[in-house]
Write a structure and sequence with these properties.
69% of the residues lie in helices and 0% in strands. It has 187 residues and is mainly alpha-helical. The protein has a single domain, classed as Lysozyme.
Amino acid sequence: MKWRRLPWILILLFAGGAVAYCAWERHLERGQYSSIRFAAECYGIDPMLIKALVWRESHFNPHARGLAQEIGLMQLREDSAREWADAEHVMGFQHQHCFDPRTNTLAGAWYLKKLLKRYAQTDTPLLYALADYNAGRGNVLKWSTGSAVTNSAVFAAQIGFPGTKHYVTSVTRRYAIYRFLSRLGWD
């Protein structure tokens, strides 16, 4: 008789854990939203897109570190962050400043805007920009052959790294979810 209850107990434990995880993630999101919104306004990018990118890159952890020296919410490498600092005339910039959520989202949003402009001639600049953000311009150029130069469906099929394919898909899906929730009034 006791063993019959075990599946229900496991289901309840799993459900409780899922609810707790969602609540914790929501708490982390809210803690970074003012920085995300500010950067979005500064560079004219949908805050839900920046939020989706932050979710994928760091899960809203401003202290996140990547294997290739990327840091902060948007996992910025030093060369990308320095490019932002030079373009925006930020004096005394150090890569460590990217641990500050506001600095990180400003630099990351600026860089994302640059990538979106770079691929403006394509039918879906976001896919190319996300692939570039993840794998670099050199790889995007390798994958942009033939009709993939402007056709995002062909381009997506030619992405040579499974991790980058997954990255692009996960960010675009999360972006769609955030946009849907935003329309319901949930930022």
